[in-house]
Amino acid sequence: MAKLYIKSMIWNILLYILFEGLSASPVTVQFTAIGEKIQMTCPDNQSSSWQKFDTGDILASCENGNAAIKKSLFHRINVTDDCQNLTIKDFKIEDVGQYRCFVTYPDAKEPMYGFDIQIRSVTIVEANNSSEIKRREGENITLTCSIHGAQQNTVVYWTVGGTILRSNKSKYVIYQFTAKPSDHMKQFVCFANSSENSYFLEAKVQLSLIFKPDVKVVSYPSPPTVQKGHGITLVCQDESGNDEIINSFSWNQHGRLLNNNTKTLQIVRADSDVTGEYTCTVKNIAGEDCDVVNVTVTYSPVVQNYNVTFKTNDGPITLKCEAKGVPNTYKFSEWRHFTHNDQLVRTIQGYTNGTLILPHQELTYENSGIYICNVTNGIPDEDGLVWKAGKVEVIIEGIPVLVNPGKHIFIGNFDDTSSVTVFVLSSSNVLKADWFDERQMLLNTSTCSPSVTKTDFFGNLFKVPSYKCVYWIQTTKKEDFQNYTVNIENQFGEIAFNFSLVSANEMSSSGTKYIGFVLVFTFTVCILFTWWRLRKAKRQDYQRSRENEQQIQGVGVIVNNLYGSAADLHGS
Questions:
Q1: What is the pLDDT of residue 4?
Q2: What is the pTM for the complete model shown?
Q3: Of the CATH numbers 2.20.25.90, 2.60.40.10, 3.40.50.720, 3.90.1150.10, which one belongs to the domain with range 2-119?
């Protein structure tokens, strides 16, 4: 038998060399599994030998109805006596490859026939022989599992965690889905089995998702509230857990794109215009996401200074302390009223909302001036000041007003120069002063010059800006000592003021007589008062002596009644 096998092997080698390059023999593909039995049948029933093409080994040969098998494979290979059928009983991985049967008779159609024996397997098409596939969150994913060497009753399955997703009694099965974050790192398993054989085939692939950005804007400090002049930093964080590089960052404020394409937006010195809504948008290959943060810049109130003008007949007026700050909750102090030249006139309590109502039904010039309000929202300014002041300048328009108290008697010198000076208050320039004598004859028209004088504002005297109107008499005659009227005019009207010019000698004589009269009157009153006090004291003394006398007489009566009178005792 051994000689037959060797002789057949030499003969087949010669046939292989002769026909290998000359004839393209047909190849049959067959599938099996490790440990299974597989049978190859040569199409020609007069084959002479079987060869493992990959190694060139002659597995078996037949001659005259006798079969010879390679000794090392005797326990795993069977061959029919005619060499038409070759059976491998316990298939091993090294048995995978191509096999050939040789036909030696002269009329044979083909000198040899080939067999390609492959392991039955499942393949995940989209994995490309990798254990992992990468996809994007939200992407439509298709997984195709294909089986090589499937039998007619083979069923192919897709499973995840033991749960069947899809199945098909075919050579393949397809599973389609939209990737969700929960699908990340899931292992998808494809397996196939057959009722005819005990084989069980499977392939696995793990899904690695590239997530859309999950954006959160974090502020330092937090919450995103910063005092004016201080710094704030906004950081755009991607919390999706991606290891992938972010494609882009962008920032905008109120829809206005900012010149910053990094994850950090730093504001070194915040001003009031920094306040607002900031949006950070992050993009990667899976998509985009954004987050919004509202930044608040706190600052001490900015108080508006303004002027307001009223008429004397406007009635009560309202002033408002106009403050703008963040936060916009304010506390107001008392109002302070100053003259136009910065003298404090009075302090007035306003309302908690920052308004002040001047209650006079008819406004007077003394209501004019500078009104100062103070306000705070608890935020210090850059100098550390918590209270901020605002100024409202109030102008009362009306006709000129005489200073209070006014002077109605002026003293002149006979045959000398005399003058009359009248001070008035006016919100506008005084245009002129017309001077009239007591017969209402116009004596002179003069202009009034700016000046400063004392006047009464709410019970106190203040030096305030005024206008001084002067009438001069160069050589004063006797007839100049009379009553006069002056009409002082500004753009809103005029005021008439009556006064008298008297001689200095008459005022001196009148003054002396007046002083003497006062002294005589005072002396007389003192004498009368002293006389009255003495008369009253004398009457009181007399009354007390009478009362004492009556008391003594009463005691004597009591004694007489008890013991008898002295005369009676003497008589007895």
A1: 45
A2: 0.59
A3: 2.60.40.10
